[in-house]
């Protein structure tokens, strides 16, 4: 009886929460648990064999410097991986902010810039804190010089594309265009991460960790934006 009296205020508060709020909190809690679990597995070496097997399966057995598939595939993925580079992501962020300024959404533009910059800082801190070396079981098909976990391209793509997609979606007048923005952001995030594994510069778990951390940051930014930024009046025209 005493426990029920103590728990009742908490239950009442939860019952008043919106479904979107509950989903966001559950996603953040689950994603954080997955990321922490993944870091623990990596530090204990439990993922090493699986990581190596996947990297080896993407190369010719008789020549590990040659990736599987036609020559155009490696060329295409080499181009795609540039979409997760700091230069390209910075240009996309600045252009998106300019679009929002022209659309008279100065508050969203500033929030977007702060969100993406914050994600970059978190990515750098995680790399330094975990300090996982790059894979050396297969030759790298592009030059890399920093640490491996989490994948910077995967995380920064998730941070940038998902954050921009979510914030730009809020400025769209119809549900269809909002869904397109989110779908395009997810697609770009996925193909950039896949390219890093194919090119041999990251373990699959590096990319998974980058996706997880980036999605968590983007979801957190979306949640804060949803609570603090004003929606455009035109957003209610189509449901």
UniProtKB/TrEMBL annotation:
SUPFAM superfamilies: Acid phosphatase/Vanadium-dependent haloperoxidase (SSF48317). Keywords: Membrane, Transmembrane, Transmembrane helix. This is Phosphatase PAP2 family protein. Residues 108-222 form the Phosphatidic acid phosphatase type 2/haloperoxidase domain. Coiled coil: none annotated. The keyword Transmembrane applies. InterPro entries: PAP2/HPO, PAP2/HPO_sf. The chain crosses the membrane at residues 20-40, 80-102, 109-130, 150-168, 180-201, 207-225.
